[in-house]
Specification:
Layout: H1 15-27, E1 45-48, H2 71-76, E2 81-89, E3 92-96, E4 104-107, H3 108-121, E5 127-133, H4 139-149, H5 170-176, E6 180-185, E7 196-198, H6 199-202, E8 203-205, H7 230-235, E9 239-243, E10 247-251, E11 254-257, H8 262-265, H9 274-284, E12 292-295, H10 303-310, H11 340-350, E13 360-363, E14 366-369
Helix pairs in contact: 3-4, 9-10
The structure holds 2-acetamido-2-deoxy-beta-D-glucopyranose (5 copies).
One 2-acetamido-2-deoxy-beta-D-glucopyranose binds next to loops.
GO molecular function: phosphoric diester hydrolase activity
InterPro entries: PI-PLC_domain, PLC-like_Pdiesterase_TIM-brl
Protein name: PLC-like phosphodiesterase
Amino acid sequence: MLAIKNLLPILLSCAPAAIAEVIRRNTACNNSPSLCSKSYGEITHLGAHDSPFLRDASTGYSVSGNQFYNTTVQLSAGVRLVTGQVHKNNNDWHLCHSDCKLLDAGTLESWLSEIKTWLDGNPNDVVTVLLVNSDDATDSELATAFEASEITQYAYTPSSTSAPTSWPTLQELISKGTRLLTFVASLSSNSNAKYLMDEFAYIWENPFEVTSASNFSCLPERPSTVSKDIPSALSSNRLPFMNHFLDKDIGLGIEEPDVDAVATTNGQNGTGNLLTAAQTCKSAYSGRQPSFILVDFFDKGPAIDVVDELNNVTDATGRVPVPNTNADDNSNSTSSGTYVGLLELVDEVKNGANPSVGNWIWAGGDWLSVLGGGVSI
Ligand SMILES: *[C@@H]1O[C@H](CO)[C@@H](O)[C@H](O)[C@H]1NC(C)=O
Ligand SMILES: *[C@@H]1O[C@H](CO)[C@@H](O)[C@H](O)[C@H]1NC(C)=O
Ligand SMILES: *[C@@H]1O[C@H](CO)[C@@H](O)[C@H](O)[C@H]1NC(C)=O
Ligand SMILES: *[C@@H]1O[C@H](CO)[C@@H](O)[C@H](O)[C@H]1NC(C)=O
Ligand SMILES: *[C@@H]1O[C@H](CO)[C@@H](O)[C@H](O)[C@H]1NC(C)=O
């Protein structure tokens, strides 16, 4: 799921409707009453890949954006896993896509605060955060941001340092107030912040960086100890994590989210479609459904319908539809504004920044030097 190797309120107009809504929400967990008694690892959580990296007006419709709507909108619409890459920037920890010069979505603390505010307002919901630890932040460094955002008040601390045979139910997590599960890829030690779980001790993933709709695979890729070995992955008790997003190879090793294909990628039926892929994997996993499904442009498909289908949810409640605004208007993605981030990189290179690699790409009317010989955006 890494994109780089290195790396609302509800307005209720009348009283009877208000009462009915309150009752339903109190008995629903992650939008459905049927999920309360299910274990955290048994259901499928919809994940927004690179959640804070937006392709909207705020980023000049950056081609480095993986989502049209921000994390708050994602969570309100039913997303329950949000991922992002943590990079060191000016001695602070930021969420940046591949490189802070390409797309800087602000500090980790501020993003965690946004999630914390959402958790405050949604007491029956369990949320998972997965951080890609691109610049090897220590547990203490990450914990500083977690504590400053006050999201630690919701943090779940595992009872074991390896994958458990079973996880608490959503209702247990909600009742104990431990509604935030945090995984980090990777963490050498969490002795100073036990709620930071080293991802690959608890989870295995299929491949990412897929550029052809026919190339999605159910085989485990990471951690290497279970690579290409489904029986080992399953018997390790790790949770199956299904990456399902398509990149477009735009040449010279650069990949960007394939937004044009998203109706298929997040759709239901046929090669490269999300439901078909999830059912194929579930079958390959002896009936075990993926615990997480990670997608780009989550509102397309819509991907949540696939997750509801896997979770046998027919009574979803309390979701807020994505705003009916211009965020998913791709017309600007091909304009020069799109390449603002890339052009900044070009400027850096022109100004003498270390063009360590000989790959160049013509982007937005200028030449871009590819840092590291394989930047995925
Ligand atoms: C998220 O997006 C919505 C809709 O565009 C906007 O109203 C809200 O202010 C944004 N929230 C944050 C925290 O950026
Ligand atoms: C599809 O996967 C195969 C096997 O991994 C690989 O050889 C091939 O290059 C991939 N095709 C594309 C278009 O990515
Ligand atoms: C999926 O494909 C099958 C066979 O091609 C078709 O019968 C079915 O109606 C399709 N379902 C949806 C939801 O498109
Ligand atoms: C949904 O139903 C299928 C088929 O009965 C079952 O395999 C699966 O475990 C169920 N999933 C959930 C989360 O209830
Ligand atoms: C596209 O960009 C133009 C110029 O920046 C702007 O005026 C317009 O509102 C944008 N379109 C959308 C749908 O955001």
